[in-house]
Amino acid sequence: MKQYLDLCSHILENGTVKEDRTGTGTISVFGYQMRYDLQKGFPLMTTKKTALRLIASELVWFLKGDTSLRTLINDRNPIWDEWGFERWVNSDEYNGPDMTDFGRRSLRDEEFERTYKEEMANYKKRIVEDDEFAAKYGDLGPIYGKQWRSWSSGEGVVDQIKQLIDGIKRNPDSRRHIVTAWNPSEVNDMALPPCHALFQFYVADGKLSCQLYQRSADVFLGVPFNIASYALLVHLIAHECNLEVGDFIHTLGDAHIYLNHMEQVKEQLSRTPKKLPTLKLNTEGKSIFDLTYEDISVEGYDPYPKIKAPIAV
Q: Taking the complete model, does pTM exceed 0.90, yes or no?
């Protein structure tokens, strides 16, 4: 994962300090590209432990067209909890303790952190147990899964993933193997507008490659997940199309390190990357649309310990 560490160093050496939507502040560069040869191993971060189970669970959720937080909660996947919770505590119906700026406040105030955890636990419990509440405050809006599997157009609904697979099979040399999650007409209804906004597939010599354009990249927390998620997507689409895997090319727009992640990034840069693991898929007799996260695993993964850092909401 030297490519990733080079990105971190590049931002620290060349980045500009900027304000951001969350109020945390970042150091940022604009325009950066990394390339991963998927024949050389699965690019799951080795300089800190990264949870493939969460990555796989989220990707399966996207591929099924799901936008309900209940599914992820039942899968013990907290990736999207804060964005659903934010919608709830900012609603007119919420009458509990003040949760303004809960992400940063919970880091510096132990009493508030306890209150926040209680409110979050109550919120997640209601999502699981109360259908009406889940429908109103547990759906994250028309985010990735909705756009990938049921993009709304004037002529009906478009299943971009099935269209992609059909296109690769029928005309592998096409330059139109594109899926977009950025739907301008619905972006304001999303809990979080898509960061990984558009991707394109390319077939050459029996291998399938993918380039992702990511408009906004949280380099310490988000990008390691994005790399592994799209590498996994390449493997899954390649399986569906009877192709080998090629490269994953990761193109970043605003690539930033949050100012409260600086020490964590420096700790990671002090570590030497280890050998990449091997991806294992239980796909026998299954379409990628039938997989669960339990069908996805890696062998030979020996990372350094995880490094904790706050998420900016």
A: yes
